[in-house]
Each structure stands twice: as structure tokens, then as C-alpha cells.
Amino acid sequence: MSEQPLLDVSDDASLGTVEIAPEVIEVITGIAASEVEGISSMRGNFATGVVERFGKKSHSKGVKVELTDTGILIDLYVVLNFGVSIPEIAQKLQTNIRQTLKNMTALEIAEINVHVVGIQMEEQENIENKDE
User: Fold this and answer.
1) To 10 degrees, the CA torsion angle through 108, 71, 21, 30?
2) Are 74 and 97 in contact (CB under 8 A)?
3) Strand (E) positions, 9-70?
4) Which residues contact 74 (CB under 8 A, 6 or more apart)?
5) Are strands 71-81 and 109-120 parallel, antiparallel or unpaired?
6) Which of 117, 100, 115, 102 is nearest to 64 (CA)?
7) What is this structure's pTM?
8) Which segments of the chain have a pLDDT < 50?
9) CA 89 to each of CA 31, 37, 94, 97: distance values in angstroms, whole numbers, following the listed order
């Protein structure tokens, strides 16, 4: 588990407390990002690659959540499809993630930083089929 503290989202403590782990925010962010057209993939690390080879989808791949004094910071690492408008896709990502997190957790996000780490060109098969 992460060393980061849980987020306390309870307004009324008379019934108990509600806490959300940062990993939950990562998963929600990953799912919200995958809903945006133009994303080829999310950048992961070696561990997520191994997990996906065994058939388990890692929804938090390419997402880093940091809890700071100023609020929640989200860094998103994406590979976009060739030919899409990078500013437009980044804006759609930020809007969709912010709205989804607001609806599901009632949390306000301080920053959503989109890092474009690559461009996916057309698949080799598609290029060969166009020549025929």
C-alpha cells in the first residue's frame, strides 16, 4: 500500500468517517482518461506491463496522484494517436477527469497535469493494406 495518507471526505462525522485512498483516485482517473478519444495508451512501468501480460487491466497505469498542502495534484502520462490536436485532447482529458472525480468523490482537484510522452503512428498492418 502507498505511504500516502487517506483523504477524509466526511462532512458530517456523526455517522462515521469516509476516507478515500489515493489509489482509488488513480483508478478513477485512469478510467476517465480512457474514455477520451485520441488516446492511444497510457505510460506505465515495468510492473504494470507484467500485470497486463497476465490479463489483468491496470486502470491506474500512467497516473500519479500526489496529496499536498495545496490540494490534490494529478500527473497523467499519455501516448496520443497521430493527427489529433494535442491541446484539444489535453483539455478534454482535464475536463473529463475533473468532472468524473467531482461526481464520484466530491473532491476538488488542484491540478491535472497532462504529459504527452509519445505519439502512436498508424499500425504497420493499416499502412500495408492501404497500398493494395
Assistant:
1) 60
2) yes
3) 19-20, 39-42, 63-68
4) 25, 29, 63, 64, 65, 66, 97, 109, 111, 112, 113
5) parallel
6) 115
7) 0.74
8) 1-2, 45-53, 56, 124-125
9) 15, 8, 9, 12
